[in-house]
Amino acid sequence: MRISSTHRSICLITTMLLACATTWADFTPVHQPPGKEASVAEILASFYSPGTAWAPTGGRLDDSGNPVDLSNGSLLAARIDDFGFPGVLDMGAPYFGDADDQSWTGASLTFNAVARYAGYTQEFGYDLDGDDAGYTKLFDVRGNKMKVSGSATLELKPGESLAWYRSGNHGGQWSSRTADNSDAYDHMIAYRMSGFGDDLARWMLFWEDLPKGGDLDYNDMAVEVTTVAARVPEPGVGTTMALACGAYVLLRRRNL
Fold first, then answer.
1. 87 close to 129: Cβ distance less than 8 angstroms
2. b/e for 59-72, b at 16 or more Cβ within 10 A?
3. Per-residue pLDDT for the chain (256 aa), expressed as one digit of tens each?
4. Second label for 17, Cα 20 to 30 Å away, from 80, 118, 226, 236?
């Protein structure tokens, strides 16, 4: 896959800024799955780059001291913080470690099922903030492992925000917003995917379907969300370093 110089620069800035944010990261630990089930990294490899493995990269760590960001050498999966930032994550904007995965917004969103490593049914949906509709189902994930189907589209109006939801025939109905979950556990982890050299913003959502975290491997359901990415001008080397250093100074001030 050919990666443009623009997207290489953006990935470099993202990696540097995310590394600066290590002190404030708050990530839910992810365990290796049992048996022959695919891990998060293996799901990314099967979906985006068959034959090319993904491995941990960068210096951001979860609460157990494990690296959270992944790469296959060309593409980057930047883990979204699970807690710690107020506000709403804009799916069309670049991600620089300045939002968590609790609440989301966007414009024209497209969803595709990626994987299902679970014995129970899996369905994906959302709860729109500020209305009385509650949970709205988007699709069922049909099939098993990497051979799954399920897709939908969603148009959000300017200013609308939502929480993602997993539901099914066992385990419970779980939200990306931890405070809404009856067991007070984090049932979803998310990644911002970059390095593709096109105009799409890609996000991967991984779910744990059992109460109290289950086996914490977050591979029971995986869904890709895409939207049109905000345009970012190509920076020079000086701009890249200035952005990274500026972010580091800002983060240092936040720690004082």
1. no
2. ebbbeeeeebbbbb
3. 334 444 444 444 444 445 444 434 599 999 999 999 999 999 999 999 999 999 999 789 988 889 999 999 999 999 999 999 989 999 999 998 899 999 999 999 999 999 999 999 999 999 999 998 899 999 999 999 999 999 999 999 999 999 999 999 887 899 999 999 999 999 999 999 999 999 999 999 999 999 988 899 999 999 999 999 987 655 444 433 443 444 433 343 333 3
4. 226
- Global pTM value: 0.84
The DSSP line for 152-187 is: EEEEPPTT--EEEEEE-SSS--EESSGGGSTT----
Q: Which domains does the chain have, with CATH numbers?
A: 5-255 (2.60.120.400)
Residues 6+ positions from 214 with CB-CB distance below 8 Å = 171, 208, 220
Residue 243, SS3 per DSSP: helix
Q: Please, are residues 186 and 175 in contact by the beta-carbon 8 Å criterion? A: no
Q: 254 — phi, psi (to 5°)?
A: -65, -25
Give, for 16, the enclosing helix (H) or strand (E): helix 5-20
Which two three-digit tokens encode residue 33? 């799955």
